[in-house]
Amino acid sequence: MVYFKSTRATTDIKATVKKYQQIIPYLPAAHCLSGCDTVAQYHGIGKKTIIKKLEEGFIVKYLSKLDSNLKDVFKECTDFIAACHNVKSVDNMTAARLSVWAKKVGHAQLKAPSFASLPPTTESFCENVKRAHLQMYFWMSAQNLVLPKIDVTQYGREKDDENKILNPISVPKNTKLAPDFILELAKCSCKANDPCSSNRCGCLSNGVSCSLMCKCMMDKRDENKCKNPLTKFVETAQNESESKESDNE
Fold this sequence. Notes:
This protein is mostly helical. It is 41% helix and 3% strand. Helix 4 (70-84) packs across helix 6. This is Tesmin/TSO1-like CXC domain-containing protein. Residues 183-232 form the Tesmin/TSO1-like CXC domain.
């Protein structure tokens, strides 16, 4: 009888350092920007993708340098994360978001891909970059005995004096999530029992699914759950699509 004995895998540290020596200086910033304990991660972008883009020549060198122009920081980070979504030559993250949306619509029989699968809007992305900028500064200054005073509310967070915590800012105050005419077209006002079950529902009568902007989606009670059959169809299709994407990663 033959027995197989498993052994512990080993990594040649010297060989690994030699292989990645060109990108090592940029690893902390790329790791921080792509998601860490204090910075939100982007859907579908893992650390393998980050390494691949660094090897392709996309770098992040301004993070942690608080004297850098924020426009340069945003531009560099936009190019890097957009490249992780296989989008190049965009001026802002909203343009990258539109490009990814167009690709998903073109490859799938869905009218609207899941919002979570898209890159963030420019406004939301910039707030996340600010948090990464400050986090990298703390990491790179870890050996300094004294740190300068920093107003953390200038870096993607706001104070909650009642609970004495710092909350991340999703988007700046007074930022419109969409133009007014889009919001009017894209939502229904169904809020009674058995909502969206008749053509009185604006979404159902126009042959579209309800969205997070509809009143029916704001009521989380099961008895008042949206009855628009198109909503269920789209949710099921999106879940299946996301499951396939996860399996392919």
